[in-house]
Design brief:
- It is a single chain.
- The chain contains twelve helices and three strands; from the N terminus they run ααβββαααααααααα.
- Strands 1-2-3 form a three-stranded antiparallel beta sheet.
- The chain is 53% helix and 10% strand.
- The radius of gyration is 27 Å and the shape is elongated.
- It starts with 7 loop residues before the first helix and ends with a helix.
- It is mainly alpha-helical and 298 residues long.
- The chain has three domains: 79 residues, no CATH class; 64 residues, no CATH class; 114 residues, no CATH class.
């Protein structure tokens, strides 16, 4: 029985799968090697790099148990040493769903995952194959077409929010969730919807009365209640905020949607939250000119 030859697309998909499995296997092997003295591990790996020692990874099946095996082969002495025997356990359905939910999906999440992978050890935080392929495809397309990386990586285009707007919204929502937590005494039995109704009224008042007066300030007034301080931080982070419009949602329904999308009045931990922490608050309020500067300008 002859098998149908794989077309180019299938071959690429198979190669991506093999590369991903190899990356995972070597990652597990490197983690296991950390159990041994560092100088010994470095010495062996230097011999591997020189071709004197061969490192092989394979799988072993005994009954229902599958294990990942790692072996060093010394070419000169023909001796073999097993350094890895890791039993592989399949993830449960709940664990798999949780892992899939945390997979980087948006361009901002993928960029954050790439940033994390580059800023840490490649063993403890490897760049996911899907993220690596996304970055390589975007860079390749930018070089070939001359388009900007914003376009080829999916940050720019019709109907798409900019990266800055995405990160600013995350920072805004984090402060709004904190404000919701402070509009009622903890454990007072106030529902999420009631908190949203209260905060919606407070946001309307804050936007109309307080924000135009304080939008140029670096920090909220020390005597303000905590919920108002949180609204100040939210307005500072909100994308496109101005003296006339602090860009905060004043609808109880919209606030409730933000609560439902997160957990326990804290922003749901996604990959892009890493990048959002590096985003500076953009104070778009123009500075008032002092009388002396006006006089000199005249």
């Amino acid at each position: 029985m002859s098998m149908k030859p794989l077309d180019e697309k299938d071959r690429q998909a198979m190669q991506h799968l093999i590369d991903g499995l190899a990356c995972c296997a070597y990652g597990i092997a490197m983690l296991q090697l950390r159990r041994f003295p560092q100088d010994q591990v470095v010495a062996v790996l230097e011999r591997v790099a020189a071709g004197e020692v061969v490192m092989t990874l394979s799988t072993s099946m005994t009954g229902d148990e599958t294990a990942l095996l790692g072996i060093f082969h010394d070419r000169s002495s023909h001796a073999s040493v097993e350094f890895l025997h890791q039993v592989l356990q399949p993830a449960g359905e709940a664990s798999l769903k949780s892992a899939l939910d945390e997979m980087p999906a948006t361009p901002a999440d993928k960029l954050a995952a790439l940033f994390q992978g580059l800023s840490r050890s490649s063993v403890t935080s490897p760049v996911l194959p899907s993220v690596r392929e996304w970055a390589m495809a975007g860079i390749r397309s930018a070089v070939q077409s001359g388009d900007s990386l914003d376009e080829t990586l999916g940050f720019k285009g019709a109907g798409k929010r900019s990266l800055a707007a995405t990160l600013d919204t995350q920072n805004r929502d984090r402060s709004l969730l904190a404000a919701l937590q402070h509009v009622a005494v903890p454990d007072a039995g106030v529902s999420d919807w009631e908190r949203c109704l209260r905060l919606a009224k407070l946001i309307k008042s804050f936007s109309k009365i307080d924000w135009p007066k304080v939008c140029r300030d670096a920090a909220p007034a020390p005597g303000w209640p905590q919920w108002k301080k949180c609204l100040f931080a939210a307005a500072q982070s909100a994308h496109g905020s101005s003296p006339k419009d602090c860009k905060l949602p004043s609808s109880a329904t919209r606030l409730y949607q933000i609560v439902q999308a997160n957990t326990g009045y804290s922003l749901k931990g996604g990959a892009a939250t890493v990048l959002a922490s590096y985003r500076k608050s953009a104070n778009t309020c123009p500075l008032q000119k002092s009388p002396s500067s006006l006089k000199s300008a005249a």
